[in-house]
From TrEMBL:
Keywords: Endonuclease, Hydrolase, Nuclease. GO terms for molecular function: endonuclease activity. Pfam families: DUF222, HNH. Signal peptide: none annotated. SMART domains: HNHc. This is HNH endonuclease. InterPro entries: DUF222, HNH, HNH_nuc. Residues 465-517 form the HNH nuclease domain. Coiled coil: none annotated. Belongs to the Rv1128c/1148c/1588c/1702c/1945/3466 family.
């Protein structure tokens, strides 16, 4: 016995009645035909044109099936939310028959009995009410179980999950879409869908589920802000754009006749909203002021979540900062990392490495951080630069300073953890050492008994004038090929502070965050000679391992005299 035959008696009182339905028979036949057609296909052996054609054909069938899955799932959920129509009809008829019989008995008893008997029978009005079909049907409806309850499930979602082997999340997503595109029922009578054009296109296989969800999201956002005629126009336009149809709503739009993917439909929806409801409010209402907001989550898995919402202008500003830094990373890696080609010619790194794998600094040539991880590093550098700016608001008369606490023994031994005021998460000793070296962080060192051994003084950190001098001398990160500008770099003590290194520009260089975090392990060496940094690269970059002067400001080199003056 197959799965279908085993499950049928569980969910159907009369399986033969359902299997004889022409729609069910046709769907079963279509399934067998599709299995026969695809059963022997070897996708890897198909040609390019055959593969593309097959994708289009399968997706066309899939859209039809997906539309039916959404609408059928929504129908089952609706039947499970309200009373079972079939059970209620049978119970109502039984209640009517029972009430009519009781009324007839009461009438006979009243006619054949005396006064004492008349006082003991049901009053005529009450008997008539009991025999009323409407009252009986209402009582039966309340007593009738829902479809899910009748089949032993607590809810329609549970019923569909068990029947169709789906997750609750998938069922809920279908339900949300089906409520807008599917047929509605009121007191047993069908009503038009909330978005009828969308429902027709979904059932006809003209739209995919993602496209339909985007359209519903756009229409729901406009529903309370525009007129019904405008909403209908937007619905028809988006459906036509999603299906590739040319209609009066799309004939003058760019790309008319081309089926739009979900992202393009979302962009088109944004344009419609900007035209019809730019303020997101109904006509006559005052537009709501939109403000960006940002919050920090609690400590989880060693880090903090960042939650927020940004206006279009704020998003563009932050996006441009990140895009500029990432663009520099790509251009540098493409230009500075050529590799030998098969024919002996140099092949650019950009031809073989994806942009998201590139680093703006040769300090970490194998940087495989994702784009989002790199953007987080860029954001940190921007805030560090802002904290150093003279115009940054002060806290109690002092510049914003991060207080880092660590035991001196743990710091010297490279173990334990450091702590920051107001932050639950710990820092590693390496991170503390890096922060102390960079400046802008005030170290507080504790001894064995908890006594404060050292509280960093303000002159421990590089002043604004020192940073300006370093920026003029180094011109940015001193690692050859790095393009990080001076205001996004950190100051590095060439001779570490714990070895007696002074906070002086003759003992400092500018390097980027990536270089600073790995300066002890990357193989780059830095030395100061006559107040100017010299760099020696690791063997992977410089097989000769030669000391070379670091980059300097363009103004440090004088223009050569004309030939006739030499």
């Amino acid at each position: 016995m197959g799965v279908k035959e085993a499950m049928a008696p569980m969910f159907m009182e009369n399986p033969n009645e359902a299997s004889s339905n022409p729609v069910v028979v046709a769907v079963e036949q279509a399934r067998e035909i599709l299995l026969a057609a695809l059963g022997g296909v070897s996708f890897g052996l198909l040609g390019d044109e055959e593969s593309l054609t097959l994708v289009l054909a399968v997706e066309s069938v899939g859209r039809v099936v997906d539309g039916a899955r959404v609408l059928s799932t929504s129908d089952v959920l609706r039947r499970s939310e309200y009373f079972d129509a079939a059970a209620a009809k049978a119970a109502a008829q039984a209640a009517v028959d029972q009430s009519a019989a009781a009324a007839q008995n009461a009438a006979r008893e009243k006619a054949g009995s005396g006064k004492a008997g008349a006082e003991s029978v049901i009053p005529e009005g009450a008997a008539a009410d009991a025999a009323s079909p409407s009252v009986a049907r209402a009582a039966a409806s309340l007593a009738a179980p829902t479809l899910a309850r009748r089949l032993g499930c607590r809810s329609g979602v549970e019923l569909v999950c068990a029947l169709a082997r789906l997750s609750r999340n998938e069922v809920r997503q279908r339900a949300v879409l089906g409520e807008k595109a599917g047929q509605r029922m009121l007191l047993g009578r069908p009503l038009a869908p909330t978005y009828p054009v969308l429902g027709e296109a979904l059932q006809g296989g003209e739209l995919g589920l993602e496209q339909a969800r985007v359209i519903v999201q756009v229409l729901d956002g406009l529903r309370s802000s525009v007129l019904a005629s405008d909403l209908d126009r937007v619905e028809r336009s988006l459906v036509a754009s999603g299906s590739g149809a040319i209609t009066p709503e799309t004939e003058d739009l760019p790309g008319a006749g081309i089926a739009f993917a979900p992202e393009l439909l979302r962009q088109q929806g944004i344009q419609w909203k900007a035209r019809l409801a730019p303020d997101g409010s109904a006509p006559g209402e005052a537009p709501t002021e939109r403000r960006s907001w940002l919050t920090f989550g609690t400590l989880s898995n060693g880090g903090y979540s960042l939650n927020g919402w940004f206006t279009t202008l704020d998003r563009a500003t932050l996006g441009n900062v990140c895009a500029g830094q990432l663009s520099d990373a790509y251009l540098f890696a493409a230009a500075a990392n050529p590799v030998p080609g098969a024919d002996g010619a140099a092949t650019r790194a950009s031809d073989r490495i994806s942009p998201h794998l590139l680093s703006p600094c040769p300090q970490q040539p194998d940087d495989t951080r994702s784009r989002s991880e790199k953007q987080a590093g860029i954001l940190r550098a921007v805030f560090e630069a802002a904290a150093r700016h003279p115009g940054t608001p002060t806290m109690g008369g002092a510049a914003p300073t991060v207080l880092v606490h660590i035991n001196i023994t743990d710091l010297l031994d490279g173990r334990g953890a450091g702590w920051i005021d107001g932050i639950d998460g710990p820092l590693t000793p390496h991170q503390v050492d890096e922060l102390i070296c960079a400046g802008g962080y005030q170290p507080i060192l504790f001894g064995h008994t908890g006594k404060i051994l050292h509280l960093g003084a303000s002159n421990r950190f590089f002043s604004a004038s020192q940073r300006r001098a370093l920026a003029a001398r180094d011109g940015g990160c001193v690692i050859p090929g790095c393009t990080v500008p001076p205001h996004l770099t950190q100051v590095h003590h060439v001779v570490p502070w714990r070895q007696g290194g002074l906070t002086d520009i003759d003992n400092a260089v500018l390097i980027c965050n990536a270089a600073h975090s790995s300066i002890d392990t990357s193989g780059w060496d830095i030395d100061m000679r006559d107040g100017r940094p010299w760099i020696r690269g690791p063997l992977i970059f410089d097989p000769t391992h030669t000391w070379r002067p670091a980059g300097q400001n363009r103004a440090a080199t004088a223009v050569e005299k004309p030939t006739w003056e030499k």
